[in-house]
Amino acid sequence: MAKVCYCADDFAMNAEISNAIIQLIERGALQATSCMTQSKLWETAAAKLKPFSNQIDIGLHLNFTHAFTSGNTVFSLPALMFRAWSSNLNRELITQCIEEQWDAFVSVMGKQPDFIDGHQHVHQFPFIRDILLQLLKEKNFAGWIRNLQHPIYLPHYRFKTHMLSALGSNALAKACQTYQFSQNEYFAGIYDFKQTDYAELNQYWLAQAKDHLLIMCHPSLSTPSEQDPIQHARIQEYQYFSSDQFPLDCQKNGIQLTRLGAMQ
């Protein structure tokens, strides 16, 4: 029986996403969620999430590419990638931004994050990765870090999966071993977020599942008021996870849904 953890990204990005995640946690469909602490909705949303602190892993969704009204440090994804790979980022600014997001999490949740990942996987980018891991070491971080080193490749999304994995997963894995930070062993959840049969994608991932598989997802209750390029995919994901089909798919493939922190 393979132990699998489903993690919903983007908690607190908006109310529709947060409420969807809470509902799916209550159903037992999710075992982790990562939080965007720069959102003006963070404290209100966190109050609903906090009662589940002992039931799921709650992490920090490190952000440098999504603009919140708080005036956070933000780049377009191409600009951030160029700056990260050319070491053209301000170390003091990046450090401050990470610390602010960390402090916002700790001050509200009353504990360190159970794990760290990144919005659009920015946590594995060079320069950002080095600063992040050093800060985590200084804070005696005891959680796990998301890694894309060993992804499950879907037939139609091999290129995207390979590219995301190539954006720093090997270097992140090596650095985490040096710092002795835990990571997930396998990863899934990558597709193009277009109209597709999301249940079929999950059935493929689950059929290939091995222990320590982390599956990323992005559910939402309804179309958010803000412009969101993956809004239709979010709704489709929520509908699948809240359906009777999801637990049946898990049962068929011999899946034990477990928080990743409990697997370490």
TrEMBL record:
Cofactors named for this entry: Mg(2+)
Keyword Metal-binding listed: yes
Keyword annotations: Carbohydrate metabolism, Hydrolase, Magnesium, Metal-binding
Keyword field contains Hydrolase: yes
InterPro entries (UniProt xref): Glyco_hydro/deAcase_b/a-brl, YdjC-like
UniProt-listed Pfam families: YdjC
Protein name: ChbG/HpnK family deacetylase
Organism of derivation: Acinetobacter oleivorans
